[in-house]
């Protein structure tokens, strides 16, 4: 085979379950995906934002933006005691490309992941591992520092070494996004902590738009793989959702000149649709709340047969799902979609690119 | 009993690996000319680029321009998986459009159309407003 | 040590005497190069031309042997049916190419060629009316065949035909 016809690998994991199922894992799946960049909600046959949801959106907690934050600031004992040990803070460097630059992420369980280029790694002087995607001659290394370890405190050798390496030796500075979770008071103290470093709170931006009438695939909650003439499968729906969110009309004739994109069969016409975009560093807790609102939305009879909640992860994160290492390769995509049905069942579609682990 | 059976049978998992037919590319055309381009012209340009680098077999590839925004000259291309490398290389090597120098920037490549609407690399966090700074 | 693997494509130019007269290694190379560019573009042409040589052309029988790298064989073999003429611009002659054999070595191509001529000999002789024509066919065949074995093998076959 000619190498010209090869393409990067990818994966789409589709799951079907019910919110009332005793083994349902929707909460775990949301909590495992730490760094969410954008949340999109699409409800067919719905003209405007449901009232409870607008209430939720007006009360979203802010995230913080700090430019040139020295990494040692996140290693202060005070910070670790107040935020990290409670598992209530996550931080991510931005404007750093994971395949070209050094980047880091502070995961809520309390570990600091540094994803470093070879040069930085070799001058840093901390022990790490070559990236699992690096091949035989690694140019990329990952250093994992457990901040919650009982030995990680002032006076201990390990702690002093890390402080020296990241402070005096290299003085790594990043542009950082920080998000805290929990009570209002916690948010306030996080803001106080970050203020000396020039951190300022930012509210997630949201925008809503109404989707024009068009054809929409017919879904049956018990047919995940789809069936001819009965209902569309998850894989077709996933592409159709992409077309809707990108503002592409699928109702072109199949022999249209520049494009031959069509709506998957079978389909039905919808009069309108509602699309919500929420952008920023969004914590898994916010996503959970939104999902709960979507479920509440269906507690009263509605025209909409289903609703789709899509969550995009940052492309340049060292970890996308729980502990699996994440790389960029060609696209770095990591996203998941919940299709919530009226009857309480849901589909969870998780999509990843080449360099990612998604179980 | 019957409800129990229903709930246990309701869990299902399917994993699709490399099982999609298409790849999507978000591209931007850079051109000095300020004339307004339409989708058909852009599609012609892509076909021309393919024909130049990969000949008739390249030009015969199924390559749809499913979306084109004239003011920003940004579009989304859909190609079959086996044609991804050929379309990408042809667009990279393209250098002239009607005698003028031009370039095509590949902004994002993904097998999922949905992921093109969430591009975190081109996103910049909002700057603080003046009032926030004073606070 | 990595060994470069080659493939030898044996084909016949069909297009009458005029086409045969226009044949030369450089003319065939130019024709193939043009066809490759039309079919596979600049990339396909450049890729296929690495290590491609036309190293045997027979102006009498129209047999052409082209050597290509193994990995670009598919490019060449898919372009061969699209060859429509041969020669340089003033006297470009319409013709087409018929691929007979693809071998891994020159030896296998020669073996095939002998077998091929042996098979076509009977039909060619049957088409001859006068003895003179038979002599001409015989001379043509003799000039094409490589003498890899004892000469009398080929002669014996030809004698059988001329009787």
UniProtKB/TrEMBL annotation, chain A:
GO function term, MF aspect, one: ribonuclease MRP activity
Pfam families, A to Z: Ribonuc_P_40 (PF08584)
Q: Which GO terms describe its biological process?
A: endonucleolytic cleavage in ITS1 to separate SSU-rRNA from 5.8S rRNA and LSU-rRNA from tricistronic rRNA transcript (SSU-rRNA, 5.8S rRNA, LSU-rRNA); tRNA 5'-leader removal
InterPro entries, sorted: RNase_P_Rpp40
- One GO cellular component, as annotated: ribonuclease MRP complex
The domain of life for this entry's organism is Eukaryota
Q: What is this protein called?
A: Ribonuclease P/MRP 40 subunit
Q: Which organism is it from?
A: Eptatretus burgeri (Inshore hagfish)
Phylogenetic placement of the source organism:
Eukaryota, Metazoa, Chordata, Craniata, Vertebrata
Automatic annotation (TrEMBL), chain B:
What keyword terms does UniProt attach to this protein?
tRNA processing
Molecular function, one GO term: ribonuclease P RNA binding
Under InterPro entries, the record lists: Pop5/Rpp14/Rnp2-like, Rnp2-like_sf
Q: Does the keyword Secreted apply?
A: no
Q: Name one Pfam family in it.
A: RNase_P_Rpp14
Single Gene Ontology BP annotation: tRNA 5'-leader removal
Entry GO CC: multimeric ribonuclease P complex; nucleolus
Entry similarity comment: Belongs to the eukaryotic/archaeal RNase P protein component 2 family.
Q: What is this protein called?
A: Ribonuclease P/MRP 14 subunit
Automatic annotation (TrEMBL), chain C:
Q: What family classification does the UniProt entry report for this protein?
A: Belongs to the eukaryotic/archaeal RNase P protein component 2 family.
- Describe the task this protein carries out: Component of ribonuclease P, a protein complex that generates mature tRNA molecules by cleaving their 5'-ends.
Q: What is this protein called?
A: Ribonuclease P/MRP protein subunit POP5
The alphabetized UniProt keywords are: Nucleus, rRNA processing, tRNA processing
Please state where this protein is localized. Answer: Nucleus, Nucleolus
Domain of life assignment? Eukaryota
**Main location group:** nucleus
Please give the Gene Ontology molecular function terms for this protein.
Answer: ribonuclease P RNA binding
Q: Name one Pfam family in it.
A: RNase_P_Rpp14
| UniProt keyword annotation of rRNA processing present | yes
Q: Extract the InterPro entries matched here.
A: Pop5/Rpp14/Rnp2-like, RNase_P/MRP_POP5, Rnp2-like_sf
Q: What is the lineage of its organism?
A: Eukaryota, Metazoa, Chordata, Craniata, Vertebrata
């Amino acid at each position: 085979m000619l190498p010209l016809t090869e393409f990067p690998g990818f994966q789409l994991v589709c799951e079907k379950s019910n919110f009332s199922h005793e083994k349902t894992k929707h909460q775990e799946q949301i909590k495992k995906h730490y760094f969410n960049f954008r949340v999109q909600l699409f409800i067919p046959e719905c003209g405007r934002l449901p009232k409870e949801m607008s209430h939720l959106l007006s009360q979203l907690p802010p995230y913080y933006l700090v430019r040139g934050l020295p990494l040692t600031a996140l290693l202060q004992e005070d910070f670790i005691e107040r935020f990290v040990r409670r598992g209530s803070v996550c931080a991510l460097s931005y404007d750093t490309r994971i395949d070209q630059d050094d980047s880091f992420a502070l995961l809520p369980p309390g570990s600091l992941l540094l994803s470093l280029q070879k040069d930085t790694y070799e001058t840093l002087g901390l022990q790490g591992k070559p990236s699992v995607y690096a091949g035989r001659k690694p140019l990329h290394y990952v250093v994992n520092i457990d901040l919650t370890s009982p030995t990680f405190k002032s006076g201990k050798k390990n702690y002093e070494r890390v402080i020296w390496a990241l402070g005096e030796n290299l003085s790594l500075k990043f542009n950082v996004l920080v998000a805290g979770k929990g009570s209002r008071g916690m948010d306030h103290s996080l803001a106080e902590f970050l203020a000396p470093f020039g951190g300022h709170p930012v509210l997630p931006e949201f925008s809503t738009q109404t989707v024009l009438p068009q054809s929409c695939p017919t879904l049956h909650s018990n047919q995940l793989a789809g069936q001819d003439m009965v209902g569309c499968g998850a894989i077709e729906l996933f592409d159709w959702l992409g077309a809707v969110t990108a503002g592409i009309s699928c109702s072109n004739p199949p022999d249209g000149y520049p494009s031959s994109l069509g709506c998957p069969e079978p389909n039905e016409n919808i009069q309108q649709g509602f699309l919500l975009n929420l952008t920023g560093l969004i914590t898994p807790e916010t996503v959970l709340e939104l999902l709960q609102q979507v479920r509440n939305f269906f507690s009263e009879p509605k025209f909409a047969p289903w609703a789709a909640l899509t969550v995009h992860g940052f492309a340049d994160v060292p970890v996308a799902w729980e502990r699996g290492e994440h790389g960029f390769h060609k696209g770095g995509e990591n996203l998941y979609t919940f299709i919530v049905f009226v009857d309480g069942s849901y589909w969870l579609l998780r999509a990843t690119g080449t360099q990612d682990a998604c179980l | 009993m019957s409800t129990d059976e229903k709930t246990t049978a309701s869990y299902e998992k399917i994993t699709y690996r490399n099982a999609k037919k298409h790849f999507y590319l978000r591209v931007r055309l850079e051109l000095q000319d300020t004339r307004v381009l339409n989708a058909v012209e852009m599609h012609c340009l892509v076909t021309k680029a393919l024909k130049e680098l990969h000949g008739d077999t390249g030009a015969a590839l199924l390559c749809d321009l499913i979306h084109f925004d004239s003011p920003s000259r940004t579009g989304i291309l859909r190609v079959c998986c086996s044609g991804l490398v050929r379309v990408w290389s042809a667009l990279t090597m393209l250098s002239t459009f009607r005698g003028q120098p031009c370039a095509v920037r590949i902004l994002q490549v993904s097998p999922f159309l949905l992921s093109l609407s969430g591009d975190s690399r081109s996103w910049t966090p909002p700057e603080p407003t003046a009032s926030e700074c004073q606070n | 040590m990595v060994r470069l693997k080659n493939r030898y494509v044996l084909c016949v130019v069909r297009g009458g005497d005029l086409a045969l007269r226009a044949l030369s290694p450089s003319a065939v190379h130019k024709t193939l190069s043009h066809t490759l560019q039309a079919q596979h573009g600049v990339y396909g042409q450049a890729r296929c031309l690495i290590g491609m040589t036309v190293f045997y052309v027979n102006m009498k029988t129209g047999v052409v042997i082209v050597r290509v790298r193994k990995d670009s064989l598919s490019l060449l073999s898919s372009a061969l049916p699209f060859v429509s003429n041969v020669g340089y611009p003033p006297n470009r002659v319409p013709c087409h190419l018929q691929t007979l054999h693809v071998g891994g070595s020159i030896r296998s191509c020669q073996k095939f060629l002998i077998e091929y001529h042996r098979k076509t000999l009977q039909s060619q002789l049957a088409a001859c009316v006068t003895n003179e024509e038979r002599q001409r066919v015989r001379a043509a065949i003799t000039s094409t065949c490589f003498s890899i074995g004892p000469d009398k093998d080929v002669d014996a076959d030809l004698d059988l035909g001329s009787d």
